[in-house]
Amino acid sequence: MLKQYLEFLTKLKNNNNRQWFAANKAEYASLQADYMVWIEKILFEMVEIDSSLQFLSAKECVFRINRDIRFTNDKSPYKTNLSGIFSSSGKSGHNCGYYFEISSDGELMVGGGQYYLFPKDLFRVRKMLAKDASPLRKVLGNKDFKATFGELNGEKLKTHPKGFSPEDPNLDLLKFKNYIAMAYLSAAERSDDEIAEIIVSKFKTVKPLVDLIRKW
Fold first, then answer.
1. What is the total count of domains within the chain?
2. Cβ(117)–Cβ(177) below 8 Å
3. What is the model's pTM?
4. Residues 6+ positions from 104 with CB-CB distance below 8 Å
5. Domain extent at residue 183
6. Which pLDDT does position 116 carry in this prediction?
7. Of 32, 38, 69, 171, which is least surrounded by CB within 10 A?
8. Is there a contact between 151 and 140 (Cβ–Cβ < 8 Å)?
Protein backbone atom coordinates (compact mmCIF):
# COMPACT_ATOMS: atom_id res chain seq x y z
CA MET A 1 0.00 0.00 0.00
CA LEU A 2 2.70 2.51 1.00
CA LYS A 3 4.63 1.98 -2.23
CA GLN A 4 1.52 2.68 -4.28
CA TYR A 5 0.65 5.68 -2.11
CA LEU A 6 4.13 7.17 -2.52
CA GLU A 7 3.91 6.63 -6.28
CA PHE A 8 0.62 8.55 -6.21
CA LEU A 9 2.25 11.35 -4.19
CA THR A 10 5.13 11.53 -6.68
CA LYS A 11 2.60 12.09 -9.47
CA LEU A 12 0.83 14.64 -7.29
CA LYS A 13 4.15 16.41 -6.70
CA ASN A 14 4.46 16.87 -10.47
CA ASN A 15 0.81 17.88 -10.86
CA ASN A 16 0.06 19.76 -7.67
CA ASN A 17 -3.18 21.43 -8.68
CA ARG A 18 -6.85 20.97 -7.91
CA GLN A 19 -7.78 19.85 -11.41
CA TRP A 20 -5.39 16.88 -11.38
CA PHE A 21 -6.35 15.92 -7.84
CA ALA A 22 -10.06 16.00 -8.65
CA ALA A 23 -9.47 13.73 -11.66
CA ASN A 24 -7.58 11.25 -9.46
CA LYS A 25 -9.60 11.57 -6.26
CA ALA A 26 -10.97 8.02 -6.44
CA GLU A 27 -7.44 6.59 -6.37
CA TYR A 28 -6.56 8.87 -3.47
CA ALA A 29 -9.64 7.81 -1.50
CA SER A 30 -8.79 4.13 -1.93
CA LEU A 31 -5.17 4.62 -0.86
CA GLN A 32 -6.19 6.79 2.07
CA ALA A 33 -8.61 4.16 3.34
CA ASP A 34 -5.84 1.52 3.35
CA TYR A 35 -3.46 4.00 4.96
CA MET A 36 -5.90 4.63 7.82
CA VAL A 37 -6.05 0.88 8.51
CA TRP A 38 -2.23 0.86 8.65
CA ILE A 39 -2.23 3.84 11.04
CA GLU A 40 -4.76 2.04 13.23
CA LYS A 41 -2.37 -0.90 13.56
CA ILE A 42 0.48 1.40 14.65
CA LEU A 43 -1.84 3.13 17.12
CA PHE A 44 -2.89 -0.23 18.56
CA GLU A 45 0.76 -1.12 19.20
CA MET A 46 1.53 2.32 20.61
CA VAL A 47 -1.28 2.10 23.16
CA GLU A 48 0.50 -0.95 24.59
CA ILE A 49 3.64 1.20 24.97
CA ASP A 50 2.01 4.48 26.01
CA SER A 51 -1.41 4.21 27.66
CA SER A 52 -2.02 7.98 27.32
CA LEU A 53 -2.86 7.31 23.66
CA GLN A 54 -5.70 4.92 24.44
CA PHE A 55 -8.47 7.39 23.63
CA LEU A 56 -7.04 8.42 20.26
CA SER A 57 -8.58 7.42 16.96
CA ALA A 58 -6.61 6.90 13.76
CA LYS A 59 -8.34 9.95 12.30
CA GLU A 60 -6.85 12.12 15.07
CA CYS A 61 -3.34 10.93 14.12
CA VAL A 62 -3.43 11.94 10.45
CA PHE A 63 -3.25 15.40 8.94
CA ARG A 64 -5.38 16.48 5.98
CA ILE A 65 -3.69 16.36 2.59
CA ASN A 66 -4.62 20.00 2.01
CA ARG A 67 -1.84 22.47 2.78
CA ASP A 68 -2.34 25.70 4.72
CA ILE A 69 -1.20 28.21 2.10
CA ARG A 70 -2.21 31.38 3.92
CA PHE A 71 1.26 32.32 5.16
CA THR A 72 3.59 30.88 2.53
CA ASN A 73 4.76 31.80 -0.94
CA ASP A 74 4.32 28.19 -2.03
CA LYS A 75 0.68 27.99 -3.06
CA SER A 76 0.71 24.27 -3.95
CA PRO A 77 -2.61 23.08 -2.53
CA TYR A 78 -1.60 19.56 -1.47
CA LYS A 79 1.00 17.86 0.71
CA THR A 80 3.21 15.31 -0.99
CA ASN A 81 4.27 13.22 1.98
CA LEU A 82 2.71 10.82 4.44
CA SER A 83 2.81 11.63 8.11
CA GLY A 84 1.29 10.71 11.41
CA ILE A 85 1.33 12.17 14.92
CA PHE A 86 0.50 10.23 18.06
CA SER A 87 -0.24 12.58 20.94
CA SER A 88 -2.79 12.47 23.73
CA SER A 89 -4.12 15.83 22.56
CA GLY A 90 -4.46 14.70 18.95
CA LYS A 91 -3.15 16.42 15.85
CA SER A 92 -4.65 19.78 16.83
CA GLY A 93 -3.20 19.94 20.33
CA HIS A 94 0.13 21.06 21.73
CA ASN A 95 1.03 18.07 23.88
CA CYS A 96 4.28 16.29 23.19
CA GLY A 97 4.15 12.99 21.35
CA TYR A 98 5.47 10.88 18.51
CA TYR A 99 5.78 11.80 14.84
CA PHE A 100 6.77 10.23 11.54
CA GLU A 101 6.91 11.47 7.98
CA ILE A 102 7.62 9.62 4.74
CA SER A 103 8.56 11.73 1.74
CA SER A 104 7.41 10.85 -1.76
CA ASP A 105 10.91 9.46 -2.49
CA GLY A 106 10.74 7.09 0.46
CA GLU A 107 12.81 8.92 3.09
CA LEU A 108 11.53 8.29 6.60
CA MET A 109 11.79 10.76 9.48
CA VAL A 110 10.65 9.38 12.82
CA GLY A 111 10.94 10.39 16.46
CA GLY A 112 9.17 12.56 18.99
CA GLY A 113 9.24 15.23 21.64
CA GLN A 114 7.74 18.70 22.00
CA TYR A 115 7.55 20.54 18.69
CA TYR A 116 6.05 23.78 19.99
CA LEU A 117 6.17 25.57 23.33
CA PHE A 118 4.33 28.78 24.08
CA PRO A 119 6.82 31.55 24.99
CA LYS A 120 5.88 31.54 28.67
CA ASP A 121 6.25 27.75 28.80
CA LEU A 122 9.57 27.85 26.97
CA PHE A 123 10.89 30.41 29.47
CA ARG A 124 9.72 28.22 32.35
CA VAL A 125 11.42 25.16 30.86
CA ARG A 126 14.65 27.07 30.36
CA LYS A 127 14.58 28.24 33.97
CA MET A 128 14.09 24.67 35.08
CA LEU A 129 16.95 23.38 32.91
CA ALA A 130 19.24 26.16 34.08
CA LYS A 131 18.61 24.99 37.63
CA ASP A 132 18.93 21.25 36.94
CA ALA A 133 19.32 19.66 33.50
CA SER A 134 20.45 16.28 34.82
CA PRO A 135 17.16 14.43 34.07
CA LEU A 136 17.29 15.56 30.43
CA ARG A 137 20.99 14.78 30.13
CA LYS A 138 20.33 11.30 31.50
CA VAL A 139 17.76 10.68 28.74
CA LEU A 140 20.05 12.10 26.05
CA GLY A 141 22.96 10.03 27.34
CA ASN A 142 21.13 6.72 27.13
CA LYS A 143 22.99 4.29 24.86
CA ASP A 144 19.96 3.33 22.75
CA PHE A 145 18.83 6.94 22.46
CA LYS A 146 22.26 8.10 21.27
CA ALA A 147 22.56 5.22 18.81
CA THR A 148 19.15 6.02 17.34
CA PHE A 149 18.92 9.80 17.42
CA GLY A 150 22.40 11.07 18.25
CA GLU A 151 21.17 14.15 20.08
CA LEU A 152 18.35 16.66 20.19
CA ASN A 153 17.76 18.20 16.78
CA GLY A 154 15.09 20.78 17.37
CA GLU A 155 15.31 24.41 16.30
CA LYS A 156 17.61 26.52 18.46
CA LEU A 157 19.01 29.99 18.93
CA LYS A 158 22.45 30.99 17.68
CA THR A 159 23.19 32.80 20.93
CA HIS A 160 21.99 32.64 24.54
CA PRO A 161 18.29 33.26 25.19
CA LYS A 162 17.27 36.57 26.70
CA GLY A 163 17.35 36.47 30.48
CA PHE A 164 20.00 33.76 30.70
CA SER A 165 23.75 33.97 31.09
CA PRO A 166 25.98 33.15 28.11
CA GLU A 167 28.15 31.36 30.66
CA ASP A 168 25.38 29.04 31.87
CA PRO A 169 26.76 25.46 31.97
CA ASN A 170 23.51 24.23 30.41
CA LEU A 171 23.50 26.78 27.61
CA ASP A 172 23.58 24.04 24.98
CA LEU A 173 20.13 22.93 26.15
CA LEU A 174 18.77 26.40 26.86
CA LYS A 175 19.25 27.42 23.22
CA PHE A 176 16.60 25.01 22.00
CA LYS A 177 13.22 26.43 20.99
CA ASN A 178 11.68 22.98 20.83
CA TYR A 179 12.79 19.64 22.19
CA ILE A 180 12.60 16.87 19.62
CA ALA A 181 14.68 13.91 18.52
CA MET A 182 14.41 12.52 14.99
CA ALA A 183 16.02 9.66 13.13
CA TYR A 184 16.34 9.67 9.33
CA LEU A 185 16.44 6.52 7.22
CA SER A 186 15.15 5.05 3.99
CA ALA A 187 11.79 3.32 3.82
CA ALA A 188 12.31 2.34 0.18
CA GLU A 189 12.17 -1.36 -0.66
CA ARG A 190 10.60 -2.15 2.72
CA SER A 191 7.20 -3.71 3.26
CA ASP A 192 4.36 -1.92 5.02
CA ASP A 193 4.84 -4.15 8.07
CA GLU A 194 8.60 -3.50 8.18
CA ILE A 195 8.08 0.26 8.07
CA ALA A 196 5.47 0.06 10.83
CA GLU A 197 7.88 -2.00 12.96
CA ILE A 198 10.65 0.58 12.46
CA ILE A 199 8.33 3.44 13.40
CA VAL A 200 7.09 1.74 16.57
CA SER A 201 10.65 0.79 17.52
CA LYS A 202 11.87 4.40 17.20
CA PHE A 203 8.82 5.64 19.08
CA LYS A 204 9.65 3.24 21.89
CA THR A 205 13.22 4.55 22.02
CA VAL A 206 12.12 8.20 22.16
CA LYS A 207 9.46 7.53 24.82
CA PRO A 208 11.74 8.46 27.78
CA LEU A 209 12.12 11.93 26.26
CA VAL A 210 8.37 12.21 25.78
CA ASP A 211 7.76 11.03 29.35
CA LEU A 212 10.21 13.56 30.74
CA ILE A 213 8.75 16.47 28.77
CA ARG A 214 5.28 15.59 30.03
CA LYS A 215 6.54 16.22 33.56
CA TRP A 216 7.75 19.71 32.63
1. 1
2. yes
3. 0.91
4. 6, 9, 10, 12, 13, 80, 81
5. 2-215
6. 87
7. 69
8. yes
